[in-house]
Amino acid sequence: MAARHRFSSNQNSSSGSWSISQSFASQFSNTPTKDPPEDSLNDQIAEVMSVANRDRTTEFQSVLKSIKTRQPNGVTPHANAKTPLLQRSEFSKYAKRIGTDLSKTYEKLEKLTLLCKKRTLFDDRPVEIQELTYIIKQDITSLKRQIQQLEENKTVMQTNTKRDVQRHSTSVVRTLRSKLANMSENFKSVLEVRRENMKQQKLRKDQFSSSNLSSSMPSSATQGTRGSVLLMDEQRSSNPSGSVAISMDGGDHPGRSSTQHQTMQLIDQQDSYITERAETMETIESTIVELGNIFQQLATMVKEQEEQVMRIDSNVEESELNIEAAHTEILKYFQGITSNRWLMIKVFLVLIVFFVIFVVFFA
Amino acid sequence: MVKLFSMSLLYKGPAVVIPLTSTYDLMSFNYFQRKSIQEFMTFTTQIITERTQTGQRQSVKEQEYLCHVYVREDRLTGVIIADQDYPRRVAFTILSKACEDFASKVPSKDWPYGQQANIQYNGLEPMLLKYQDPKEADAMTRVQAELDETKIVLHGTMESLLQRGEKLDDLVAKSDALSLQSKTFYKQAKKANSWCCVIQ
User: Fold this and answer.
1) With an 8 Å Cβ cutoff, is B57 touching chain A?
2) What is the dihedral of CA B86, B89, B94, B95, to 10 degrees?
3) Strand order of the sheet with strand B65-71?
4) I need a labelling partner for B192 at 20 to 30 A (CA). Which of A68, A142, A244, A354 fits?
């Protein structure tokens, strides 16, 4: 049991001293002695405290094996033939590896975020984004698996270690898990941002393309392509299915641009049909919204023209009044004239006078 | 032009693919080519079904035709051969419908052993005829088409509304002129009346 205590005390010291003790163990293991080899090993280990960093784990393991063979019924073998200290260092190494993988995946996620945040209309690079998304997905699943393995290792190891060591390993696993959960959250939000951006782009493309819509009928049959009038997305997104050699023409369809690309074929093969349907529904919905808009505009225009009509109406009424009044005046005038005999006689007299004067002068 | 050439249902057994029923519409081809084309289509459907996994939908391009295949979870497979313009989504909708119909009419224990002769199912031909037009098959295509028509009509309405606006503007101007003239007329008449009295 002394060996075990010594081992666990060494656990808390630096790994350098441990490797030194390993080197001594290897040196002394080759000399066969009559003493119980474990005790001699412990003495050597206790004496050595200098610092030299060489990893001699394999040598130590060979030592252990040789020790075991020398004592056929002395030491009860461990459940998994590893000392707790070895398990511990393995655990920390594994945890370190997981940590580095996690940080690498974080970097990739950052790159993806940068790519997705771009909002330019044509500089979009769905190829890279898809690839990066795929890689990050793979990484997350593998990290999950690794953490699972780590946890299993920890539970296996737990039977031979002290309580605070157990607590330490539990907290390590928990930290890694929470980091992974954080990263998956970020990943999800980045994907959502990406989707939003694609919607925005589609809106903007529609603005450019909608001026063509009034003259031509957009092809009603959807071929499941999500090309827009502007060519780029059409060409890039022309292949959503997972077939050997499919080629589909983009219709003149005001649908939104596809998020599928050939690198994602294998994953989204089954999804593409459903995605197509969903997109068709969205198209229908947007068409209906447009129609509503058009009706609204119609109503506004009619209302505006209503005012014109009122103006015309008032003008015509006014002119009618005027004409009536003038008509009355003339009637009065006419009556004044016809029933005025005295005026008639005067007019005729004047006429005759002038006639006479003319004739006299002429003749 | 959108056109369906053939529809067939098969059973994709673990080792071999068994054709259950099929129907062809080869009116557009030469009379002498029809037989070879039919054989070719049968062969293609067989090969493609073998290459597709369960629960998958696939579309394969073959010269100018598209072959859509859908293997259901219970291994009943439907294959449609259509031309390039036929919308993919509608083709898969038709396949799902046909498989459902077949599954309801023919009991599933017959499938692994059926031969073309024993399976009593004649639903495929009317379907093929009916679904030549994708609008029939798919409600969404229909709705889409109607919406587009409505949009066209509305655009026309907007145009006529604009013309109406122009005409109304014209009328406003003319009625304005009319009222001015009538005012002048009235004034003249008044003047004439008063001038007459002066003469008196």
Assistant:
1) yes
2) 110
3) B17-24, B4-12, B76-83, B65-71, B57-62
4) A354
List all residues of chain A from 97 to 156 with a beta carbon under 8 Å from chain B.
Answer: none
CATH number of the domain at B181, please: 3.30.450.50
Nearest C-alpha in B relative to A302: B161
pTM: 0.43
- Taking CA atoms, B80 is separated from B11, B23, B39, B46, B160, in Å, by 14, 10, 15, 12, 46
Look at residues A226, A254, A225 and name the one whose alpha carbon lies nearest to residue B66: A225
Taking only Cα atoms into account, the Rg of chain B, rounded to an integer number of angstroms, comes to: 35
Q: List B residues 80-99 in contact with A (Cβ-Cβ < 8 A).
A: 84-90, 92
Contact B172 A287 (CB under 8 A): no
Q: How many CA atoms lie within 13 A of B119 on its CB side?
A: 27
Contact with chain B for residue A350, Cβ under 8 A: no
Q: Is the pLDDT of residue A169 over 50?
A: yes
Judge whether residue A354 has pLDDT over 90.
Answer: yes
Q: Which residue among A247, A291, A302 sits closest to B161, beta carbon to beta carbon?
A: A302
Domain of B105?
4-198
DSSP state of A55: -
**Contact assessment for residue B158 and residue B114, using Cβ atoms and an 8 Å cutoff:** no
Binning pLDDT at 50, 70 and 90, where does residue A79 land? very low
Cβ-defined contact of A247 to B87 (cutoff 8 Å): no
- Surface of B (150-179) touching A: CB under 8 A: 150-152, 154-155, 157-158, 161-162, 164-165, 168-169, 171-172, 175-176, 178-179
* Cβ-based burial of B150 (10 A; exposed 0-12, middle 13-18, buried ≥19): middle
Alpha-carbon gap, residue B147 to A25, rounded angstroms: 85
Number of domains in chain B: 1
Is pLDDT at A283 greater than 80 in this prediction? yes
B residues 93..132 contacting A (CB < 8 A): none
β-strand partners of B59 = B68
B32-51 mean pLDDT: 86
End-to-end CA distance of chain B: 92
pLDDT at site A210: 56
**Structure-block tokens of residue A39:** 């005790």
Average pLDDT of chain A to the nearest whole number: 72
Of A220, A246, A287, the CB nearest to B141: A220
Residues in B closer than 8 angstroms to A220, CB to CB, are: 141, 144-145, 148
| Among B175, B181, B197, the residue to mutate for chain A (most A Cβ within 10 A) | B175
Q: What is the pLDDT of residues A96-112, one digit of tens each?
A: 888 888 888 888 888 88
